[in-house]
Amino acid sequence: MAKMTNINIVIAGNSLRGFVKGLFGNFNGKQSDDLTNADDRIISINSSLDVIHNEFGLTWQIHASDSLFTYPVVKNHQSFQHVDFRPIFKFTDQCPGNVVDVCGDDQASRFDFCTTDNTSLAESTRIMTEEIEVMAEVALLVCDDISNFTHGYWNVNNRSADLVCIDNYLTTDSIVLQCYDNGTWVIPVNINNVCQRIVCDLPEPIDNGNWNVSGRNAELLCDDHCTLNGSSQLICDNEGVWELITSACLRPGMSSEIIKWQHKL
Q1: Are 179 and 160 in contact (CB under 8 A)?
Q2: Keywords in UniProt for this one (predicted)?
Protein backbone atom coordinates (compact mmCIF):
# COMPACT_ATOMS: atom_id res chain seq x y z
CA MET A 1 0.00 0.00 0.00
CA ALA A 2 1.14 3.54 -0.67
CA LYS A 3 2.36 5.59 2.29
CA MET A 4 -0.06 8.42 2.94
CA THR A 5 -0.74 10.89 5.72
CA ASN A 6 -4.38 10.81 6.79
CA ILE A 7 -5.60 13.77 8.82
CA ASN A 8 -8.83 13.65 10.81
CA ILE A 9 -10.15 16.94 12.19
CA VAL A 10 -11.79 16.93 15.62
CA ILE A 11 -13.32 20.10 17.06
CA ALA A 12 -13.75 19.97 20.84
CA GLY A 13 -17.24 21.39 21.17
CA ASN A 14 -18.92 24.63 20.27
CA SER A 15 -16.93 26.51 22.91
CA LEU A 16 -14.21 26.88 20.23
CA ARG A 17 -16.61 28.28 17.65
CA GLY A 18 -15.13 31.48 16.25
CA PHE A 19 -11.65 30.76 17.63
CA VAL A 20 -10.36 28.18 15.12
CA LYS A 21 -8.94 28.98 11.70
CA GLY A 22 -6.29 27.67 9.36
CA LEU A 23 -5.85 25.26 6.49
CA PHE A 24 -9.10 23.46 7.37
CA GLY A 25 -11.23 26.59 7.57
CA ASN A 26 -12.78 28.82 10.19
CA PHE A 27 -14.98 27.10 12.75
CA ASN A 28 -17.64 29.80 12.82
CA GLY A 29 -20.48 28.41 10.72
CA LYS A 30 -19.77 30.74 7.79
CA GLN A 31 -18.76 28.81 4.69
CA SER A 32 -17.96 32.03 2.83
CA ASP A 33 -14.79 32.69 4.86
CA ASP A 34 -13.48 29.13 5.17
CA LEU A 35 -10.72 29.95 2.69
CA THR A 36 -9.10 32.69 4.78
CA ASN A 37 -5.37 32.58 4.15
CA ALA A 38 -2.59 33.20 6.65
CA ASP A 39 -2.66 36.92 5.78
CA ASP A 40 -6.37 37.11 6.74
CA ARG A 41 -7.38 37.56 3.10
CA ILE A 42 -10.52 35.66 2.10
CA ILE A 43 -10.29 33.61 -1.09
CA SER A 44 -13.60 33.00 -2.83
CA ILE A 45 -14.91 29.46 -2.40
CA ASN A 46 -15.71 29.52 -6.13
CA SER A 47 -12.05 30.02 -7.05
CA SER A 48 -10.24 27.51 -9.23
CA LEU A 49 -8.20 24.78 -7.58
CA ASP A 50 -5.08 26.49 -8.87
CA VAL A 51 -5.95 29.75 -7.08
CA ILE A 52 -6.99 27.94 -3.90
CA HIS A 53 -3.71 26.04 -3.83
CA ASN A 54 -1.45 29.02 -4.45
CA GLU A 55 -3.27 31.86 -2.69
CA PHE A 56 -4.72 29.90 0.21
CA GLY A 57 -3.05 26.54 0.80
CA LEU A 58 0.57 27.58 0.36
CA THR A 59 0.17 30.50 2.77
CA TRP A 60 -0.32 28.04 5.61
CA GLN A 61 3.03 26.33 5.08
CA ILE A 62 4.95 26.46 8.35
CA HIS A 63 8.51 27.53 9.06
CA ALA A 64 11.03 25.25 10.72
CA SER A 65 10.63 27.12 14.03
CA ASP A 66 6.89 26.33 14.05
CA SER A 67 7.17 22.61 13.34
CA LEU A 68 5.86 20.15 15.93
CA PHE A 69 7.23 17.10 14.09
CA THR A 70 10.06 14.88 15.29
CA TYR A 71 12.43 14.16 12.41
CA PRO A 72 14.57 11.06 11.75
CA VAL A 73 18.33 11.23 12.12
CA VAL A 74 20.01 13.40 9.43
CA LYS A 75 16.57 14.73 8.46
CA ASN A 76 15.02 18.09 9.29
CA HIS A 77 12.16 20.36 8.30
CA GLN A 78 13.81 21.30 5.03
CA SER A 79 14.15 17.64 4.03
CA PHE A 80 10.40 17.47 3.51
CA GLN A 81 9.91 20.72 1.63
CA HIS A 82 9.26 20.47 -2.11
CA VAL A 83 8.80 24.05 -3.20
CA ASP A 84 8.75 23.12 -6.89
CA PHE A 85 5.92 20.62 -6.49
CA ARG A 86 2.82 21.51 -8.48
CA PRO A 87 -0.37 19.46 -8.08
CA ILE A 88 -2.42 18.27 -11.01
CA PHE A 89 -5.72 20.13 -10.89
CA LYS A 90 -7.53 18.76 -13.93
CA PHE A 91 -9.13 15.33 -14.01
CA THR A 92 -8.01 13.22 -16.95
CA ASP A 93 -10.31 10.93 -18.91
CA GLN A 94 -7.42 8.60 -19.70
CA CYS A 95 -7.99 6.00 -16.99
CA PRO A 96 -6.73 2.41 -16.76
CA GLY A 97 -9.27 -0.19 -17.81
CA ASN A 98 -9.56 -1.65 -14.31
CA VAL A 99 -10.48 1.67 -12.66
CA VAL A 100 -13.87 0.37 -11.53
CA ASP A 101 -12.33 -2.73 -9.94
CA VAL A 102 -9.74 -0.66 -8.07
CA CYS A 103 -11.74 2.45 -7.15
CA GLY A 104 -15.41 1.57 -7.38
CA ASP A 105 -17.34 4.85 -7.44
CA ASP A 106 -14.95 6.75 -5.13
CA GLN A 107 -14.08 9.94 -7.01
CA ALA A 108 -10.95 10.75 -5.00
CA SER A 109 -9.58 7.28 -5.66
CA ARG A 110 -10.38 7.58 -9.36
CA PHE A 111 -8.60 10.92 -9.54
CA ASP A 112 -5.45 9.43 -8.00
CA PHE A 113 -5.59 6.31 -10.17
CA CYS A 114 -6.26 8.09 -13.46
CA THR A 115 -3.62 10.73 -12.74
CA THR A 116 -0.80 8.50 -11.49
CA ASP A 117 -1.70 5.00 -12.76
CA ASN A 118 -0.65 3.87 -9.27
CA THR A 119 -2.90 1.05 -8.06
CA SER A 120 -1.51 1.10 -4.52
CA LEU A 121 -2.15 4.83 -4.16
CA ALA A 122 -5.70 4.52 -5.48
CA GLU A 123 -6.48 1.65 -3.11
CA SER A 124 -5.14 3.65 -0.16
CA THR A 125 -7.34 6.58 -1.10
CA ARG A 126 -10.44 4.39 -1.40
CA ILE A 127 -9.78 2.73 1.97
CA MET A 128 -9.24 6.13 3.58
CA THR A 129 -12.56 7.37 2.20
CA GLU A 130 -14.35 4.31 3.57
CA GLU A 131 -12.77 4.80 7.00
CA ILE A 132 -13.80 8.45 7.09
CA GLU A 133 -17.38 7.51 6.23
CA VAL A 134 -17.44 5.00 9.09
CA MET A 135 -16.02 7.55 11.53
CA ALA A 136 -18.64 10.07 10.46
CA GLU A 137 -21.41 7.58 11.26
CA VAL A 138 -20.12 6.83 14.76
CA ALA A 139 -18.83 10.32 15.54
CA LEU A 140 -19.72 11.59 19.00
CA LEU A 141 -22.51 14.13 19.07
CA VAL A 142 -21.34 17.58 20.10
CA CYS A 143 -24.04 19.33 22.09
CA ASP A 144 -24.31 23.10 22.16
CA ASP A 145 -23.12 24.95 25.24
CA ILE A 146 -25.99 25.45 27.66
CA SER A 147 -26.40 28.76 29.47
CA ASN A 148 -26.90 29.03 33.21
CA PHE A 149 -30.07 30.64 34.52
CA THR A 150 -31.22 32.84 37.39
CA HIS A 151 -30.07 31.36 40.74
CA GLY A 152 -28.94 28.07 39.19
CA TYR A 153 -26.87 26.18 36.64
CA TRP A 154 -26.81 22.93 34.64
CA ASN A 155 -24.68 19.95 35.62
CA VAL A 156 -23.93 18.49 32.17
CA ASN A 157 -23.04 14.81 31.75
CA ASN A 158 -22.64 13.82 28.09
CA ARG A 159 -26.12 14.27 26.57
CA SER A 160 -28.05 15.05 29.74
CA ALA A 161 -28.07 18.01 32.11
CA ASP A 162 -29.40 18.17 35.68
CA LEU A 163 -30.73 21.38 37.18
CA VAL A 164 -28.82 22.60 40.25
CA CYS A 165 -29.79 25.62 42.35
CA ILE A 166 -27.13 27.80 43.94
CA ASP A 167 -26.75 28.10 47.71
CA ASN A 168 -29.78 29.41 49.59
CA TYR A 169 -32.09 28.46 46.70
CA LEU A 170 -34.17 25.32 46.24
CA THR A 171 -36.50 23.77 43.69
CA THR A 172 -39.30 21.29 44.23
CA ASP A 173 -38.98 20.09 40.63
CA SER A 174 -36.45 17.56 39.37
CA ILE A 175 -35.54 18.81 35.90
CA VAL A 176 -33.28 16.84 33.55
CA LEU A 177 -32.62 18.03 29.99
CA GLN A 178 -31.69 15.80 27.06
CA CYS A 179 -29.53 16.88 24.13
CA TYR A 180 -31.26 16.24 20.80
CA ASP A 181 -29.60 14.57 17.82
CA ASN A 182 -29.02 17.98 16.24
CA GLY A 183 -26.99 19.08 19.28
CA THR A 184 -29.60 21.41 20.77
CA TRP A 185 -31.31 21.55 24.16
CA VAL A 186 -34.93 22.46 24.86
CA ILE A 187 -35.02 24.61 28.00
CA PRO A 188 -38.31 25.24 29.87
CA VAL A 189 -39.71 28.72 29.31
CA ASN A 190 -40.07 29.45 33.03
CA ILE A 191 -36.60 28.22 33.96
CA ASN A 192 -35.62 31.51 35.64
CA ASN A 193 -38.42 31.02 38.19
CA VAL A 194 -37.64 27.43 39.13
CA CYS A 195 -35.06 28.06 41.86
CA GLN A 196 -36.78 29.81 44.77
CA ARG A 197 -34.99 31.45 47.66
CA ILE A 198 -35.16 29.58 50.97
CA VAL A 199 -36.64 32.06 53.46
CA CYS A 200 -35.54 31.63 57.07
CA ASP A 201 -37.05 33.74 59.85
CA LEU A 202 -34.74 35.08 62.54
CA PRO A 203 -33.65 32.47 65.12
CA GLU A 204 -35.22 32.68 68.57
CA PRO A 205 -33.69 35.43 70.72
CA ILE A 206 -31.08 34.33 73.20
CA ASP A 207 -30.17 35.89 76.53
CA ASN A 208 -26.89 37.78 76.77
CA GLY A 209 -26.24 37.57 73.05
CA ASN A 210 -27.58 38.04 69.54
CA TRP A 211 -27.53 36.27 66.18
CA ASN A 212 -25.55 37.48 63.19
CA VAL A 213 -27.58 36.01 60.31
CA SER A 214 -26.22 35.50 56.79
CA GLY A 215 -28.58 33.61 54.49
CA ARG A 216 -29.14 30.18 56.00
CA ASN A 217 -26.35 30.50 58.55
CA ALA A 218 -26.34 32.29 61.88
CA GLU A 219 -23.51 32.99 64.28
CA LEU A 220 -24.10 33.55 67.99
CA LEU A 221 -22.29 36.61 69.34
CA CYS A 222 -22.21 36.86 73.12
CA ASP A 223 -22.34 40.15 74.99
CA ASP A 224 -19.20 41.54 76.60
CA HIS A 225 -18.04 39.63 79.66
CA CYS A 226 -20.21 36.65 78.69
CA THR A 227 -18.88 33.24 77.72
CA LEU A 228 -20.14 31.08 74.85
CA ASN A 229 -21.29 27.63 75.91
CA GLY A 230 -21.68 25.28 72.93
CA SER A 231 -21.40 25.97 69.21
CA SER A 232 -21.68 29.49 67.84
CA GLN A 233 -23.08 28.24 64.49
CA LEU A 234 -26.71 27.61 63.60
CA ILE A 235 -28.07 26.31 60.27
CA CYS A 236 -31.47 26.74 58.63
CA ASP A 237 -32.69 23.65 56.75
CA ASN A 238 -34.33 23.42 53.30
CA GLU A 239 -37.76 23.96 54.86
CA GLY A 240 -36.72 27.30 56.36
CA VAL A 241 -36.50 25.92 59.91
CA TRP A 242 -33.53 26.57 62.18
CA GLU A 243 -31.96 23.63 63.96
CA LEU A 244 -32.48 23.24 67.71
CA ILE A 245 -30.60 25.84 69.75
CA THR A 246 -28.38 24.16 72.35
CA SER A 247 -25.87 26.97 72.90
CA ALA A 248 -25.95 29.84 75.38
CA CYS A 249 -24.09 32.93 76.50
CA LEU A 250 -23.15 32.59 80.20
CA ARG A 251 -22.79 35.55 82.51
CA PRO A 252 -19.90 35.40 84.97
CA GLY A 253 -20.69 32.83 87.64
CA MET A 254 -23.62 31.36 85.68
CA SER A 255 -23.68 27.55 85.50
CA SER A 256 -24.07 25.72 82.21
CA GLU A 257 -26.33 23.25 84.04
CA ILE A 258 -28.91 26.01 84.49
CA ILE A 259 -28.81 26.66 80.76
CA LYS A 260 -29.31 22.96 79.96
CA TRP A 261 -32.32 22.92 82.32
CA GLN A 262 -33.77 26.00 80.61
CA HIS A 263 -33.38 24.37 77.17
CA LYS A 264 -35.28 21.31 78.40
CA LEU A 265 -38.17 23.54 79.35
Answers
A1: yes
A2: Disulfide bond, Membrane, Sushi, Transmembrane, Transmembrane helix
